[in-house]
Amino acid sequence: MQQLDSQPAAIDVVLWQYPKNRSDGERWMRLLSPNERERAATYCFERDRNSFIAGRYLLRQLLSAHTETQPDRLVLLADAYGKLTIEGRDRLQFSLSNADGLVAVAVTSECERVGIDCEHADAEIEAAALESYCSLDERRWLDRVPAGERPRAAVALWTLKESHLKALGVGLRQDPRSVGFSWQDGIPLLVESGEPDRQWHHRLIESGSQHVVALAVRSRSRAFDIRVRMFQDESMPSE
């Protein structure tokens, strides 16, 4: 049942600064499906392979807790755009994002859509790339940001857009310039036809690391209980 406007919608956001040891990656692989293990083997660089494995490991751990199903028994299905769902669990909405050194997952059963994205805060974005994903108003806004804060602001804008497109289930197949943002009291607002879209809610999440994390939610509820926590891998062998 969809949340009523007067009730806060619960959204779990879990962040994991995962270790980068090969032995950890081999241990995490045991919970992955055969298809996921095959996909992991296609990555040329160990950094990208470990990021993918850590992401699917964390996702399966969290979805296991929400569905009371063993992590390795979950059946994850991908649609034509790559958006994942759990077989037989259409109501549960979730989103996964990987950046080197960090995995972010958002899970909710009380919202229509959810998307999350994380990027390195020091990622370099060239002027040509800004033009390819920012509207004219957004570029003007960035020009007004103090020079020292502008690179991080540009990354934040990118993560907001990608989290929204992931929530829609289309990813970068849709032009990022079709998604526009403004700010009200420091909170990002989705703007369509010059007016804020009140059905969508966007937040920048404190990551506790050198990453920018953005959350996008579509819900009838205007009150949110966003529960952010850092993941502790309880399967780590004790020393």
Tags for this model:
6 helices; globular; 239 residues; 12 strands; three-stranded antiparallel β-sheet; Ribosomal Protein L22, Chain A; single chain; four-stranded mixed β-sheet; alpha+beta
Structural overview:
The structure is a single chain. The chain is α+β, with helices and mostly antiparallel strands and 239 residues long. The chain has helices at residues 22-28, 34-41, 46-67, 127-133, 136-144, 150-168; strands at residues 9-16, 76-78, 84-86, 93-99, 102-108, 113-120, 180-184, 187-192, 195-196, 200-205, 211-218, 224-230. The radius of gyration is 18 Å and the shape is globular. The N and C termini lie far apart (45 Å). The mean pLDDT is 87.
Number of strands: 12
Please give the order of strands in the largest beta sheet.
4-5-1-12
Total DSSP helices? 6
Q: Write down the domain tally.
A: 1
Specify the biggest β-sheet. 4 strands, mixed
Instruction: Give the overall form.
Output: globular
Compose a concise summary of this entry:
By secondary structure, this protein is α+β, with helices and mostly antiparallel strands. It is built from 6 helices and 12 strands. The radius of gyration is 18 Å and the shape is globular.
